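Subject: Protein entry, chain in single-letter code together with its fold tokens

Area: Proteins and the way their chains fold up in space.

Attached in line: The record itself begins immediately under this heading.
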Amino acid sequence: MTLSEKQISAISVTERVCSTISLMGTFVIVATFLGSSAFRKPINRLVFYASWGNMMANIATIISANGIHQGVDNSLCQFQGFLIQWFMPADALWTFAMACNVYLTFFHKYDSEQLRKLEWKYVLCCYGIPFIPAFAFFFIQTQARGRIYGSAILWCWVSIKWDFLRIATFYGPVWLIVSLTFAIYLRAGVVIYQKRRQLRNIGGIDSLDIDIPESPFAMLTGIQVTREIACSTPERRSISAESARGLPSAGFRSYTVTIEGGSQQNKFQRPSSQIVPGPLQKETTVKTRPDVVDSQRRLTTETNSATWAYYKYAMLFFIALLVTWVPSTINRVYSLARPNDFNFNLNYASSFVLPLQGFWNSLIYVSISWPAVKTLWSDIRKRIRSWHVPCPPKQLQPIHIRKGSQSSLTPHLLQADNEERRRSWPGSHPPC
């Protein structure tokens, strides 16, 4: 059973509408990432790189069935099939790259700088690996099956005669990546659950034997705080003895404590000369130690929360990946099992979810960057309000002195009076 013209038209309209929505979401990602540094978090950088693949895939899906109508040997059809084969599975690879960041953060203690050094490798793998079969398909053609790129009902892609290649080079690798991604998130989720349960039960970090890595969710900043402290070392002597010798009752010696941010360890710098210990010094050490522990506890709790946020948002991308690929995979398995039966509902579901990859990514991107989005929106509103175009002041009838009148107003006073009347309107400008 084949699809009717009305059904094919409905599928084409859906593809183009969803592709347009996705392109708008991708534009939001690119514009905000390039326009404001507040959006350039580590996870957002991966979304930014993935958005270019979403954009190219949407160019292919917005062509829709026009490539088929032009002919399978036409350059438009071949180009459309190439774009779909290259960029559509790249989104799954980028989700796997986010999962790799989660794995490296939790189990290998990678920080933001180390993760950033891996990004060029992610770009090379996510776009380079799918490029190889996509480009090779241009040159494969047989007498029995013809070209690889041809009609795939929804658009030009791997033709029905080469249907096994859809599983071997497209859906099979995608679901392998999905399985690996799920395994990483499952293991990381178990670790997160254990850590959060320990924090709740113990109420601190003193007994935790698991190091929580520096969060890749925030940017690195260098902070250096220096304090100069004077410590008194009084000696127990009689007043008469001190007065007789002319010695002060207490001596003060200064030392410097330097705390540097940007790494996981605090550095304390002290002078080489040893300070004579005294009762006040010992008491000060005992009092400041709980403060250090509290500060360390707060730092670890914040890091744990940020790492949990990174994991949570990466999981959202994984859920969006499932929403995208489950319906289309069911459709392809159905078509593989029953090659002569085209199910309209399954084909329509595929035409709806596949072009929306960029849209789902943009929604998650906005939710990740919601504080930055609110700040940007506030700045835009302020700029719009400042763009007030003043209207010309209302023409007021000037006061004239009739010839021969006895008015005491001079011409200068008349001009000043007219100007005052113009400025008497409420607001900066008179209403138009």
Q: What stands out?
A: The chain has a mean pLDDT of 76. The CA atoms of residues 57 and 87 lie 5 Å apart. Residues 279-337 form the longest helix (59 residues). The radius of gyration is 35 Å.
